[in-house]
Amino acid sequence: MSERDDPKRLDVPDRGGPGPSEEAVSLDSVEAVLIEHYSRLVRLAYLTLSGDRGRHRRVLDAHRIVQRALPRLARRVRVGAAGDIYGWLRAHVIRSALRAGTLHGVPTVVGLRLFPRAGGVAELDLDRRLAAMTPPTRASYALLVLEGMSEAEAGRVTGDPAAARTARLLRERLGPGGERALESSEFDPCVVQTTPDDLLRRRRNGRLVAVAGAMAVLTGCAVLAAQLLRPAPSTPANPAAGRPAASVALDPRHLIRGDADTWADTSRVDLTAWPARGDLVGDDGLLSRALRVWDHPAPSVRRTIAPGATAEGPARSPRLLYAGEMQKYRIVVFHDGERIIRYTEPTRTGGTEVTLDIALADGSNVTDGSALTLLRGSSSARYLLAPWISEIGLRDLRAPDHLPKPLRVAGGVTQSVPIPPKKGCGTWPALQLRSSAKIVENHRFLLTDLGALSPAHLTYQPLPGGGDRKRPGVRPVEATGSAALLAWSKTSCDLPQLESGVRAVNTWDFAGQQLPGGGRGTWSCMRADTWQGPGRIIIGMRPDGGRPLEAGAARNTADCSRFGQHLVASMIYRDGDGNRYLLAAGSRGVTSLTAGGKTSSTRTLVVRNPATTTVEARTRTGLLISPPGTG
Questions:
Q1: pLDDT tens across 50-71, in order?
Q2: Whose CA is closest to 80, among 14, 153, 16, 22?
Q3: Inter-axis angle of helices 151-158 and 85-99, to 10 degrees?
Q4: Which end of the chain has fewer CB atoms < 10 Å from its terminal CB, N or C?
């Protein structure tokens, strides 16, 4: 990664005093940056201070050094030609900590001892190693790890190139384990624990005195959250510096990159088993820009947040799933354990604006975690497939008797694939995938693009067989069998009614009925489950040889799920002669129906010219239910 592309690079020249080229900024701007980055600066001061003063004294001294960083009598501060306020503050804090002897007027706590939270074996080992180092070496190690500086930059800040070289060697020797330990709460003086001190003496004195300085220590880091509500200063600063370990979370060198064969040797076959793919996975400049925009998007970035997802930046290093270029765009996809984040920027020769899309993806599995949308146009899209997908084809749901057409895949990325039309449903494209036999999930399943980052998984629940109410209900199956494809050829026209963020859609054929005037109809409930939990249902009846008829819909309901298996529905129906009927049908657990003043001991009911359209059903457990949306 070049220094020019590193978003955390902050040149801090070794300043002996203000020069003619240095830029003067207002003290208010310096104060705003200090408040925003307070916890980060205090951590740097704490790591630089010698350990022989004890952790309690180091905590207090670190806070005092940062609190004293603001000049008292000046209205403007010279911070360098680039106006780098945070870089100036960081250098000032480091050098003050290197010069620190016994500080007078530091925050004081009487009767309490303060110390950061204890870590584990790795943190204890790092603490011992740092204690044996000189303060410039400790400061350099912190700058290398937490600030992403080079050895030369760290040497300029501390004024000790030899110490920076020693710190670099220490970092190479300790590796990622040492870096993770340094980012823990063991070395965070803003997250402290308290214990009582001198209890016997205080009992004899009969009083406990705690001076106001204690509040400065205990609330110093909380000030950050409150001050974030203030207007941003005119001078830009690193927006991630106010969060613990934000430097690491925004460093592409710390991205999680899975191995290509992890999915074949794990019991968790989901997005956490995906490897990093694409021809730009080594482009640290692109990855840095993607992380930076995710953490703090500029007003010009077009950002889309799916329902249920949060807009917050990375709290820890995410997993890199893809980084590559296609159709005049560079695309980066991350997974942070709960969300999918897709960053898109135009190349030099095409595209228009930078976009950021964030969607939920927690709890993904072998089916709904098997494809992600990389790029979507007006009529086609390209998808990144899970590494366990061994076969993919394109199927038209409106043509159930047609076999799927094979699709080309290169590097896990599909060719351009048609997407469902925005109007009409003459055709409805769906992906038919087969998972590898290596994961003992060798089966075919369908996905369709409903406009989200993840295509929706389609399933089918057939009619209960034999009319035996004691027989366990049939569970949803993959929508690749002949009965499922026939059902979806009719119900797919209802898919445009679904909102965004849909994870899976199931068509449940819950009842069959003889229709007045001849023929049969199949009652079905289409349920769309979203990633955040709530679902929507559309109930309809499919006459043999006729177009489907809608009987009702409801949002935020458990009906038609495994938590809402009792269902009754009704509709007004006219036969070929124009006669008017009320049709009603219930699911497998229904034992009687009442509609239009007529009662039936079966699961279906027909009432000609009904005086009322009120319908009720009773289940075998005695539960009284009505059609969804009617009470």
A1: 766 677 788 888 899 998 887 7
A2: 22
A3: 60
A4: C
Instruction: Return the ∠ at Cα 366 (arms to 361 and 372), rounded to 5°.
Output: 50
Q: Is the pLDDT of residue 629 over 80?
A: no
Beta bridge partners of 385: 371
Question: Which stretches of 66-128 are assigned E, i.e. beta strand?
Answer: 76-78, 112-116
Within the chain, how many helices (H) and strands (E) appear? 14, 31
State both tokens at 200: 């016997």
Burial 492-510, CB ≥16 within 10 A → b, else e: bbbbeebeebbbbbbbbbb
For residue 614, what are its two tokens? 């009120």
C-alpha pair distances (Å), 511 with each of 3, 16, 46, 347: 66, 85, 70, 54
Looking at residue 582, its amino acid is L
Are the C-beta atoms of residues 310 and 404 closer than 8 Å to each other? no
Q: In whole angstroms, what is the distance from residue 270 CA to residue 361 CA? A: 10
Assign 434 to helix, strand or coil.
Answer: strand
3 state SS of 204: helix
Q: How many whole angstroms separate alpha carbon 383 and alpha carbon 370?
A: 10
pTM reported for the whole predicted model:
0.63
Q: Which two tokens stand for residue 196?
A: 């009582």
d(CA 591, CA 163): 83
Q: 536 - beta bridge partners?
A: 528, 555
434 pLDDT exceeds 80? yes
Amino acid at 51: G
407: its two tokens: 């699709």
Query: What would you measure as the largest C-alpha separation in the chain, in angstroms?
Result: 102
Q: Are the beta carbons of 109 and 217 closer than 8 angstroms?
A: yes
Answer yes or no: are the C-beta atoms of 322 and 363 closer than 8 Å.
Answer: no
